[in-house]
Amino acid sequence: GRKMVVNRILVAVLLLISNNGCDAFSAQQPFFASSENNNANTESTKNTNNKALQPGDTIAVIGASGNVGKLVALRLSDTYKINGVVRDASSVQPFFEGRDNINLFECNLIEEIMKNNNDFSSSSLSPALRDANAVVICTGTTAFPTEAWSKTESTSVTSAVLKALFDNGFTVKDAISDLDSMGWNTPNNVDNKSNKYVLNVWNSMGATKKRVVMLSSIGVQRRTAMPFPILNACGVLDAKAAGEEYLKQNAKEEEYSYTIIRPGQLFGGPYDNNYYLGTLFQLDKDSDTQDVEVGQGDELLGDTLRSTLAEITAQIMEKNYATNMDFAAVNVKGQAPDVTTLQSRLGAL
Q1: Confidence at residue 238, expressed as pLDDT on a 0 to 100 scale
Q2: What pLDDT is stored for residue 121 in this prediction?
Q3: pLDDT of residue 48
Q4: Whole-angstrom Cα distance, residue 122 to residue 237?
Q5: Where would a tag sit more exposed on the chain, N or C end, judged by fewer CB atoms within 10 A?
Q6: Residue 279 φ/ψ, nearest 5 degrees
Q7: C-alpha–C-alpha distance, residues 6 and 10, integer Å
């Protein structure tokens, strides 16, 4: 009955997206808002650790070549030593020119998790995490099958999606599970398994562990409330939820603080200029939606500038704000706040 109809709709959507290379569903925020709020789990998993980062500490930025990750690495390098984890260092080296305290380390996280090897000392990720006092996780993938899911992140996925659907009787969940097992950049592999792997490798290292910041998404705690089930059709919000829960539990066990930041649909960029004064806000100075709204839990709706997300990440780490909690951050109409105003909003969380 209803379940079969829903599955057929999902199949049709998958075929449409993968065939057209459509990036419309790659956003982290759906297209229409809902007043319904099923935010039943906003409480923080508190732990007693509150070790503040100090200037000169080392931070590993996972996904430092992405549109958000490279801004995070750039901005944090104002204060800290940065170990940027990337798949291809040559793709982002020119952007970091002149930043001598940013060191790049190449690692393919999906390849590492597919090895299923618990000897983390041999992991290609280990050199980047060995001296890291904190980790920022900036990786992510699209909510629906696009080229970003392919191993090269630029190859058509149409034929492989069709085959997976056909082999599994056009059951979407099983088809995506096949793509998971093939080592694709699926939500489960990127937002769940890879994030757990990063934390496990970091736990095995000897440096003093102070903090992890994970960039997630709005809607994770509202995934049963419309319109989020649509966005979650291929499991992206489920995968993020699993990664978040693992972080909370691990932070408690290993006694470091955590923060989960929830942006909306990301916009802004591309960012080729690495020069700015003060904050990253000026990188999007032409936008008329630069004011910033933040709120604990998962209650906001809206879009988020990549430069805003990166600046917020840097501010909470430099000022030790928002420890052991999750909060949403979106941009609204208006000018960018000055540093004092932004810090006041973040400090009030």
Answers
A1: 97
A2: 85
A3: 46
A4: 31
A5: N
A6: -120, 170
A7: 6
**Contact assessment for residue 289 and residue 331, using Cβ atoms and an 8 Å cutoff:** yes
Q: What pLDDT is recorded for position 28?
A: 37
Token pair belonging to 294: 């933040």
Angle, CA of 33, 36 and 42, to the nearest 5°? 105
List the structure tokens of 143. 């909510």
Instruction: Encode burial over 13-40: b for 16+ CB neighbours within 10 A, e otherwise.
Output: bbbebbeeeeeebbbbbbeeeeeeeeee
Specify the length of the chain in residues. Answer: 349
308: left (phi over 0), alpha (psi -120 to 50) or beta: alpha
What does the pLDDT read at residue 272? 73
Q: Please give the model's pTM, rounded to 2 decimal places.
A: 0.86
Q: Residue 92's closest CA among 275, 304, 315, 274?
A: 274
Radius of gyration of the chain (CA): 19
Tokens 């956003």 — which residue? 27
Q: Which segments in the chain show pLDDT lower than 70? A: 1-50, 273-278
> What per-residue confidence (pLDDT) applies to 169?
93
> Does residue 113 sit in helix, strand or coil?
helix
Per DSSP, the three-state class of 163 is helix
Three-state DSSP state, 277: coil
- What's the distance, CA 198 to chain centroid? 13
CA–CA separation, 140 and 163 (whole Å): 24
**Before 263, cis peptide (omega within 30)?**
no
pLDDT score of 247: 98
The answer to whether the beta carbons of residues 16 and 41 sit under 8 Å apart is no
Residue range 219-257, pLDDT digits in tens: 999 999 988 999 999 999 999 999 999 999 999 999 999
Tell me whether strands 211-215 and 81-86 are parallel, antiparallel or unpaired: unpaired
Instruction: Report the distance separating Cα 309 and Cα 314, nearest Å.
Output: 9
| H or E element that contains 173 | helix 172-181
Distances, alpha carbon 282 to alpha carbons 64, 81, 102, in Å: 20, 23, 22
- Rounded distance, CA 338 to CA 341, Å? 5
